[in-house]
Structures are given as C-alpha cells and as structure tokens.
Specification:
The structure holds two protein chains of two kinds.
Chain A lengths: L1 H15 L1 H21 L7 H4 L1 E6 L6 H9 L5 E7 L6 E8 L4 H11 L7 E6 L1 H30 L2 H24 L6 H26 L6 H29 L3 H35 L4
Antiparallel strand pairs in A: 1-3, 1-4, 2-3
Helix pairs in contact in A: 1-9, 1-10, 2-7, 2-10, 6-7, 6-8, 7-8, 7-10, 8-9, 8-10, 9-10
Chain B lengths: L8 H17 L8 E6 L4 H4 L15 E5 L2 E2 L3 H9 L6 E6 L3 E5 L7 E4 L7 E2 L1 H4 L1 E8 L5 H18 L6 E5 L5 E8 L3 H9 L4 E5 L2 E5 L5 E4 L7 E8 L5 E11 L1 H12 L15 E5 L2 E6 L12 E10 L2 H21 L6 E9 L1 H30 L2 H24 L3 E2 L1 H26 L6 H23 L11 H29 L1
Parallel strand pairs in B: 7-20
Antiparallel strand pairs in B: 1-2, 1-6, 2-3, 2-4, 4-5, 8-10, 8-19, 9-10, 11-12, 11-16, 13-15, 14-15, 15-18, 16-17
C-alpha cells in the first residue's frame, strides 16, 4: 500500500493542494457571508454576549417542552437537553437567554415547569464584562497564534517549510470555525480555549512531517513522507476516536463543546497536513534537491 | 520482569513523582463520620475550643464520630441527634482528635459540616456545587483600598457563618481589577447582598443624620442572641404575600447617643399619637430607605445608648417570609458588625450550581475520560498489535494522569470542568508523543536507538513549546476565569514532556 501512496503523491502532489485551498476559500466565504448578514463571523453564546444561563436538573424535562413554554413569553433563547448516554433519558435542560430579568425568569419557569430550588442553577453574566471578555479572548487567540508561529520559525529556521506549517494551522482554525458556525454552535469561552488547544494539536503532525522529510537521510524522500503520514494518521485517528467516545458519554455541555471542536479540527488537520503541507514540502524538497 | 529497568534514572524520576502524587492525593477508604468544615467565630463550638486551622487540606479535617455517645453515620443522623438537644443544654461531640462538651445556644452550634472526603483532590465549584460571584469596584481603588475591600468581605462572610471562603483578586489584560468569591454549598441569595452591597448604614431624622454604621457610632451589635434580636410579628399582607419584621438592638457610642439627644430635643410630640415624637428615625442602607422607627416621646432629648433597629422581610408563604426576614436581619447585622466597603461593587457574573448537579457532572466527566482512555487503548492495539508497545503506553498515560491530579492536590489547585478538559487535552498530546516515540523506535531501520529517540524528542519539544506558548496568554485573560484550564494544560504537557514521556522511551529502550 505504501508504494501506491508514494506513486500517487509523486505524480499528483501539486493537484492535491487544490483541496485544502478550496476548503479554506469555502470557509472564508461562509464566515464572510455570516459577517455581512449578522455582523459577526460566528454567533456568540451568552457567556460572551451577556445574559442568563439557567440549568434545571429535573430528570425527564425535555427541550421541546421547555421551548414551547418559553415561546409563550420570550423570544431569542436557546434550550439544550442534558441527556444521559446509557439511558438516553433527559437529566434536565440548559436555557440560554439575553436581556431578561433573572428573578422574573425564575418565577415564570417555576410556575410553568415546577422544580425544587436545589434543581435550579444559574449563571448571570454582565453584558459589558462579556464583551471585554470576548475581546480579550480574541486577543489571546491571536497572541497564541503568533507565539506558535515564532516557535515554528525558530525551530526550523527555514522560511517555506515553516510557513507551510503555519498555513496548515490557519486552515485548521478557520475551517473549524466555519464548520462550528455551520452546525449552529455558538462561540463560548470554553470553545475559544478549544481553539487554543487546536493550535497545539494542529502543529504536531506538521512538525513530524517536516522533520522526517527535510531533516533525515535514512531513506528516500517519498518513503520518509509515507512513514510520517502513517505515524501522523495514527496520532490523529487516536485523538478523533478518543474525542468521539468522550462526546458520546459526556453530559456536561462545556466538555462536549471542547471535544467536538478538537475532533473537527483534527479531522480538518488531516486534510491540511497531508494534502496541503506535504505537497508544499515535496515541491520544496525537489527544488532544493533533497532526496 | 526486567529489573535493570529500575536502575534507569528516567524511570526513577517517574517513580519519585508517582510517589509524591500518591502522598499528595492521600486516598483512603471506609472512614465513617462527618467532617468539620469550619467554625463560626464566637460560636458555641468556638467557645468549646474547636479550632479549624486556615487552609486545611480537606483530608485532614476533624471528623465527628459520635454525638452524645450516638455514633454518627451521615449528616442527617448527626442533625437529627443535634436537634434532640434542648437549648442551654450540653452536647458531647467525640471527634477523631478530641472530645468536646458544648453548650447549645444556637441551632447548629456554629459548626459547618460536610461529608468526609476520601482524598485531597479539591473539586472546583462546578463539580462541587456552590456560588461564584465576580465583582468589579465601581471606582478605581488603590492597592491598600483593595486589601481593605477584601478584608471587609472576608469579615462579613465569616461573621455570617461562612468561613474558609476563598476571596481573590483578579485582573484582566486591560488592567481592570476584579474580586472573585467562591462559596461552596451556599446559594446565590446568601452571597449576593452580603458581599455586593457597600453597606453604608445611616439613621436619619428628617434630613439630619443621627448616626451611621461606622465603628465610631455603633459600639456593638446584638447577633444570635434571642434576648435582643429576633423576628417580631409576622402577618399576611395584601395579596398572598406574608410579611415579617426583624428587630435587634445596637449599642451606640456616647457621641452617637449625644447626637440622638440633640436632634430629638428639637422635635415636637406627635399631635395624634402623644406617645411618639413628630418625626420617626429613618434607616437607610446604601442610600436605600429600609424602615422607620417611631421614637417614644419619653426619649425626647435623652442620650439613649441602646437603640432598636428593625426592618422588613417578605415571602410567598409564612415560612419563606420568616426565612427571608432572618436572612435580611443576618446580613444587616453582619454589615453593621464589619463596616462598609471602600466603594460600591458591580456584579459582573454570578454562577450558582447545586451540589447534586455538580456531583453528577463530576461522575460523568470521569466516565467520559474513561471512555476516551479505553478507545485510545483499542486504537493503539489495532495499530501496533504488540503488547510490548502498548503496555508501557498505557502505564505512561495513567502515570501522567495521576501525577497531574497529584500535583494539583499538592498545590491546592481545585479541579473544575475546564481543568478536566485541559487534563484530557494534555494526556491527548501525550498519546501523540508516545506514538512518535514508538514509531521512531520500531521503524526497523539501521538508526541507533539513542539517535531515534533524540529525533523523536526534537518533534516533541517543538510541539511542546508551541502548546505552552499558545496557553500562556490565557493565564491573564478575563479575570483569570480560564486559569484553571490553562494551568492544567501547561502542567499536563510539561509533566508529560519532562517526566513521563522520557520514562516511556526508557521502557521501550529496555524491552525492545
């Protein structure tokens, strides 16, 4: 099988790059479309917008039930069910809503749904703080990205291979953002931290590939690449499988969100690394006469 | 078993850290009783000599084993036994350290209790239940004022009966300062008024201030003493609401008493109710009107050293009204006891999680982690099909997990949902790195083993520095809300890169 992959890459490597470029353009297009329509590239969660998050852990309560109750009085809210993996039964619901008085909401919910005080969990977030929190997290994301890029540049000390790694990370982040937005997920603080993790997860397969292809002479370039792909795919598949298992079992929405973003990003990273970074490195190696 | 493995420094370092982790977590099984979490100052229990040292490890808490010679099984049985004891009678508590005779003057003796914990792992708010409030001062405060602010808050929480509450200062990247208060097991209502109100108390007659809540004016406040503080008259008001009134006595300073005499001397006797003066004493908290007290005409121009303060409380049922009134009274007494804050505070975020939801989140997070772990084992088995590669991988993975949790316990860092995500992420990069090491070693080419490992570690180090760099800025963002996550990830990958992964390489070198 390895030989077929080698042959395929040897002939088609330039064409392969079209796929990640298309994915990147499509993602940028989608995010721009969002921005023009809503003023944001992705919708924000109450945590980053300000508002109230209420979790009622009353078993059996369904999201459709709560949605129809809330719909009689409020607009612009979201309801998510916390469900148990083994029984698939609802453990309760999480409601997110902005611009509403919390006492009033609690009274309304209490009279319409009925719950014990101990089943009622709230989080109230000041809008101005949420706004500055959001901005600071975006700044952190940018600083993190720059620091990662510097690390790569300093480690490799060659321009084109380093830039290839950085571009692969950029594709991971932008495309994951687009997919997450497409799936209707909203951006929260944990999801931004997941994007920070993506920076770390994204580059290890790229560093592996670059090191094996450019810094070794033990076999020919193509078989070194295929070897790196084999190791890298093992890493990515292990991560994706572990994340999917965790998503299936987790009830906590924060954990689910983080795991889902990592799983999506690592999947995108397989494309960005082996169809984007690998062909660039092949082209670079051929020009430099690295065999 | 290959004993030469144990002579390798990298393995010894791993074992050393595993030992530290074990000692820090200090797990135990089958202990019975209930733990003393904190003691209210000046309470019955404090008078009997029970002391809870500050910053005590949860594992080292004193454990109540029996009450009045009845064995304590759980919290409910303890409370039931305590309730049987009448006021002014004594209770005998036997703990694992000592035996105490306590005179019961208050319902819970001023002891706050908790379930026994079986390890030193500290669970964060979202896994344990409780309330977290983030506050921002309305004005810029100097460092000294900030310290005063936190001190007053701590005093208030202590006086209210919530001790060992972490209050910390946090700032964000734009230089704003915040105060974060986390109270395990307390509800939002308990915490909100108590710490967010500035607590400027004023007693006025007409427009003239007679006295304030400052130490110069109020010498002492009657609290938790049925003879001078309590609830008077509860009744059903208009509509379905119930209303109660609380009343407690305060001792005025000579200066405040004199001012009372001066202001009242100018008042007339009320034309319709001759028992009272023409104007009442109006009480305000933070500029908000609370209640009025009619002043007996006999007090006109008199230096009254002792004055009664009252206020209302309401609720949908009589019990709720009484509970609310007691809470209002407690928080006002607390505010008067501890003084006012240097500025008003704005509530930025309140988060309140019930202990039951926290508990189920915790169990579930463990389950999700376990699912991920099993999946990892299956995938690497399918890929390598060699026990020699897989067993060390799993050992490394579990050691990594254990050391991260151990160090968190050692440094008294609590583990919350975000930290769990960070730990899983760190362990995830650990697996990636081990795959890199394994593939370098079993590649089967002519490269010497040492060199293969060196190459693997170049890749690992670049990825490590990049992860470290990307997490670093998060330590300061947004009032440090994501610090737990950033710390867990950074600690996790650091432990992995410097302790567990080198040990993994050593294991492979030895057995391959």
């Amino acid at each position: 099988m390895g030989e077929n992959v080698e042959k395929f890459y040897d002939i088609h490597y330039k064409k392969l790059m079209i796929i990640p470029i298309l994915i990147l353009l499509l993602s940028i297009g989608f995010l721009t479309f969002n921005y023009i329509n809503t003023g944001e590239i992705i919708q924000r969660d109450v945590e980053l917008k300000g508002g109230i998050e209420v979790t009622i852990d009353k078993p059996g309560l369904t999201s459709t039930e709560v949605e129809s109750i809330l719909g009689t009085k409020y607009e612009d809210f979201s309801v998510r069910e916390l469900s148990d993996f083994s029984s698939r039964k609802s453990l309760g619901v999480t409601i997110k809503i902005s611009n509403v008085d919390e006492d009033e909401l609690k009274e309304f919910l209490s009279s319409e749904i009925g719950f014990e005080n101990s089943q009622y969990n709230t989080r109230i977030i000041n809008a101005a703080f949420a706004e500055s929190f959001y901005k600071s997290l975006i700044i952190v994301l940018i600083i993190s990205f720059i620091l990662m890029a510097l690390t790569v540049l300093i480690s490799f000390r060659t321009f084109i291979p380093s830039v290839a790694v950085i571009i692969a990370a950029l594709i991971d982040i932008i495309s994951t953002l687009a997919i997450v937005s497409f799936l209707g997920m909203k951006l929260s603080a944990p999801s931004i931290t997941a994007f920070l993790l993506v920076i770390g997860y994204s580059i290890d397969t790229d560093v592996l590939l670059t090191t094996r292809m450019l810094k070794r002479q033990n076999s020919n370039l193509l078989s070194r690449m295929v070897g790196a792909i084999k190791t890298g795919l093992t890493m990515s598949i292990t991560t994706i499988a572990a994340m999917i298992a965790a998503i299936l079992f987790a009830v906590n929405p924060v954990l689910k969100e983080i795991f889902l973003i990592i799983a999506i990003a690592v999947t995108i990273d397989i494309i960005a690394t082996y169809l984007g970074n690998a062909p660039i490195l092949m082209w670079y190696a051929k020009k430099r006469n690295i065999k | 078993m290959n004993w030469t493995l144990l002579k390798r420094p990298r393995i010894l370092i791993l074992l050393f850290f595993l030992l530290i982790a074990l000692l820090s977590i200090n797990p135990s099984f089958g202990r019975e009783g209930i733990a003393i979490k904190s003691i209210e100052p000046l309470s019955d229990a404090a008078n009997a000599g029970i002391i809870v040292p500050a910053n005590l490890n949860p594992k080292n808490r004193e454990i109540i084993q029996s009450i009045n010679n009845v064995e304590v099984k759980d919290i409910d049985s303890y409370l039931a036994e305590l309730e049987k004891v009448n006021y002014n009678k004594t209770v005998r508590l036997t703990t694992d350290k000592n035996s105490y005779i306590i005179v019961k003057n208050s319902e819970h003796l001023g002891i706050s209790i908790d379930k026994i914990v079986n390890s030193n792992i500290r669970k964060g708010l979202d896994l344990e239940g409780g309330t977290r409030v983030i506050l921002e001062p309305e004005e810029k405060l100097t460092d000294a004022e900030f310290t005063t602010l936190m001190q007053v808050m701590e005093n208030r929480l202590n006086a209210y009966g919530l001790s060992d509450v972490p209050i910390r200062k946090a700032s964000d990247l734009s230089g704003n300062n915040f105060v974060i208060v986390e109270v395990a097991g307390a509800t939002r209502e308990d915490v909100e008024d108590l710490i967010a109100s500035q607590g400027k108390f004023e007693a006025k007659i007409g427009n003239e201030t007679v006295f304030t809540g400052s130490k110069e004016d109020i010498v002492s406040v009657c609290k938790d003493d049925g003879t001078c503080s309590g609830i008077t008259n509860c009744r059903q008001a208009e509509g379905a609401q119930y209303q109660c009134t609380f009343e407690f006595a305060v001792q005025l300073s000579p200066k405040a008493a004199k001012s009372h005499a001066e202001v009242t001397s100018k008042l007339e006797v009320n034309s319709t109710f001759a028992n009272y003066l023409s104007k009442p004493l109006d009480l305000y908290v933070d500029g908000k009107y609370m209640s009025s007290l009619q002043i007996a005409s006999s007090l006109k121009g008199v230096e009254a050293p002792r004055i009664s303060i009252s206020g209302p409380g309401a609720g949908a049922t009589e019990k709720e009204a009484i509970d609310n009134t007691i809470r209002e009274m407690n928080s006002l007494q607390t505010i008067l006891l501890t003084g006012s804050l240097p500025t008003t505070l704005k509530i930025i975020e309140i988060k309140s999680i019930s202990p039951s939801l926290g508990e189920s989140f915790f169990k579930n997070a463990l389950l999700a982690g376990l699912a991920a772990l099993v999946t990892v084992c299956i995938v690497i088995y399918i890929r390598y099909r060699r026990i020699k590669v897989i067993i060390p991988m799993i050992i490394t993975l579990l050691s990594e997990l254990f050391i991260i949790v151990g160090l968190a316990s050692l440094f008294k860092q609590s583990i919350d949902v975000a930290a769990i995500a960070g730990i899983i992420a760190a362990v995830g990069t650990g697996i990636d790195d081990q795959i890199v090491i394994a593939d370098e070693i079993i590649k089967g080419d002519q490269t010497p083993l040492k060199q293969s490992i060196k190459k693997a570690f170049f890749i690992i180090m670049v990825a490590y520095v990049a992860t470290f760099a990307s997490m670093f800025p998060l330590l300061w963002a947004g009032a440090g809300l994501l610090k737990g996550f950033a710390l867990a990830t950074i600690a996790g990958v650091t432990i992995g890169v410097f302790i567990t992964r080198p040990a993994y390489a050593a294991m492979l070198e030895e057995i391959m």
